Each structure stands twice: as C-alpha cells, then as structure tokens.
Amino acid sequence: MKLDSAVLEALALDPQSTSIKSHGSSGFNATAKISTTLKDGTQKHLFMKTAPGKNAQVMFRGEHTSLNAIHNVVPSLCPASLYTGVSTDGTAFLVTDFLDMSSSGSSGGDGSEEHSGMSLAAKVAKLHTTPAPVPEGHAKPVFGFPETTCCGDTPQPNGYKQSWADFYAQNRLSAILQKCEKNNGKDAEFRSLVEKTVHVVVPRLIGDDHLNDGKGVTPVVIHGDLWSGNKGKGRIGGKGAVEDVVFDPSAVYGHNEYELGIMNMFGGFGKAFFDEYHKLCPKTPPVEEYQDRVSLYELQVLPPLPISTFGVIPASS
C-alpha cells in the first residue's frame, strides 16, 4: 500500500519514515495502520479508514466530530480523531489515534502502565452526566450535533432544537419515515404508526412538560451506536494500560437514556453494567416509565431497514 500525499500533508508526516499496511476490517470502509518515526526517534501509530464517494465524506466528518466530542469528555473512552479529508484521487479518509486491541486480554507490560481506574459503566456515566458544549450561536447547550452523522451508511439530520421531544420526533422518527418511504414506497399503516408515535407517544413519554417532572433534561454527548460490536478493550495510541474503550460513534447531544435504546436492543451490557451505571447516572423521572422510554428510543436504529422489519411501536398514551 502507498500513503496518499494528501494524507501525508494533512498530518505533516515524513514520507521517508512513514509506512502503511492493511489493518482490520470494516463493513463500509478499507482500514489501515500508519506507522511513522517522529523527529525524536519515537514511533507513532495511527489508524485510517478510506471509502469512495460523497456519502463517505459525510460519514467521516460525522465520525471525526463524534470521536472528538466523546474524547474531550472522557479521554480514556475512545481515540481522538486527527483529520478527515479527501485524497488526491477523491477518496475520503479519516485518521485517528491507533487503538491497539491486539493485547486486550492483559496489560501487556510490567503492570506499571497508567490506567484511568474507570470501568466502562463509569466512563459512560461520566459522558452522560457532563453537559454538552454550547454550540456556536447559542447561549446554552441544545439538542442536535454540529455535523450530520450516520446510522450505518444512512445520514441522520442533526439540526439543533431547544426541545428534546421535538428533536427526537422530527430529526429521528419523522426522518426515519421519510427515508423508509423513499427506499421502500409508502405504506399507510406504517405512516399512521409513526405519526401516532410522533404526536401521541413522544409528548406523553418525553414531552418537555413531563420528562424529569417538567424540568427538562440537559443535553449530553451520546455515542449514538453503542452496542457490543462497538466496544472492547485496548490501548489508545498504543500506550498505557488496557482500558474499556468504544469506537465507531454516531454522536448527538441528547437525553442520556437515548443511548440505552441501542444498548438494550442489541445487548452486550449486563445487569452489573446497568447497576453501576445507574448509581452514577440515575434514571430520569418518572422512573416508572423508564422502560417505556428505552423502548421508544429503540426506534432510532431502524432507518436502513425495510418497513417489514420494524417492530411494534410503543403504545403508551
């Protein structure tokens, strides 16, 4: 493999002391490991994804901003993203710190490596209890995200809204409906179910005057695609002790329980995780409606699927 000159220039790498080789696999992208020798003689490793097309540029911009939003709050939870751009042949690329998962079963050293001392549950709870940054042009945190992100390869609109209920209803459920109708044709029953969810279930469960006893919720950074396939153990930057880590985010500033929809739907997080998580990040009032909200949030993950695969829309009213 040869490293494109646009990547070398973007990262200020010396081509004479930099190499690249294929590394890992991905359903949407080609992946590679970049190794370079710095001026002080130390070796540094980076991770790169590449993919053709305009959609890949959108996906990588979203992932770049998502990784850094998470890393800025909990540095030991995910790699930082260094750059995303377009190579000389028009291929989109994303370069991040290298996440070494090859020695994930042990510290791989003499036991003296620095460790954050935080479990995965504690890291996610910290992410979910830290207010999201205030976007440019706003006076306080709002719901949304500065970039379009992708569910699989499907773009998700993230335009800012003051109301969490409005964001979830319009930027997720209504957007899902539009995408499904575009891909699969219109279905009157499906449209009726989605519209009922938007106009009845959403206000009933997460309406601004209802959720958290009418006090509203503070936007926090959400990974957005947190399931068993997007977590593991590894060394960020190939240094330090083995940590619980996450990757491949599709972030948004939202209600922390929104994250739990995917986690609950696809599994990989047991009772011990949630017990520890909820001690640090308690369930939002009304607590008795917690599971109904998680079921509602499971609907966020369905845009790429045909209408026939949709499950039952929650019927709370």
Provide a descriptive summary of the structure in words.
The structure is a single chain. By secondary structure, the protein is an alpha+beta fold. Helices cover 32% and strands 18% of the residues. The chain has eight helices and twelve strands. The chain has a five-stranded antiparallel sheet, sandwiched between helices. Helix 3 runs parallel beside helix 7 and helix 6 packs across helix 8. It is globular, with a radius of gyration of 21 Å. It starts with a helix and ends in a 20-residue tail after the last helix. The C terminus is likely disordered.
Please give a handful of descriptors for the protein shown.
8 helices
Strand order of the largest sheet: 1-2-3-5-4
SS summary, helix count = 8
End-to-end Cα distance, whole Å, is 57 Å
- Shape descriptor reads globular
Task: Map the helices and strands.
Layout: H1 5-11, E1 18-22, E2 30-37, E3 43-51, H2 54-73, E4 81-86, E5 92-97, E6 99-100, H3 120-128, E7 149-151, E8 154-156, H4 164-184, H5 188-206, E9 220-222, E10 231-236, E11 243-246, E12 252-254, H6 258-266, H7 271-280, H8 290-297
Antiparallel strand pairs: 1-2, 2-3, 3-5, 4-5, 6-10, 7-8, 9-12, 10-11
Helix pairs in contact: 3-7, 4-5, 6-8
